Amino acid sequence: MPQLLFVHRYQVYETVAHNNIQIEALLALKQSGMFEFWTNIRFGRFIDIMTPPKRINQLIEFLTVNGISHRLKISNVQE
Known about the structure:
Elements: H1 2-7, E1 11-16, H2 20-32, E2 36-37, E3 46-51, H3 56-65, E4 69-74
Antiparallel strand pairs: 1-3, 1-4, 2-3
């Protein structure tokens, strides 16, 4: 049962990179290992990123600061 609590409230955000600077920023984010990328990073394509609950605000701030459009795709991965 404790494992289920660990997964609880993981979220997935759908993002789109519109230029090379945003691609580079997402590549650096992926290399950090703090988030799980569900799709490949590609210019102009949807890129899905799963975040643990404790890093939701960090991800949203990163995407906003880098001008990367995003929306919440899955509010609770467990459901």
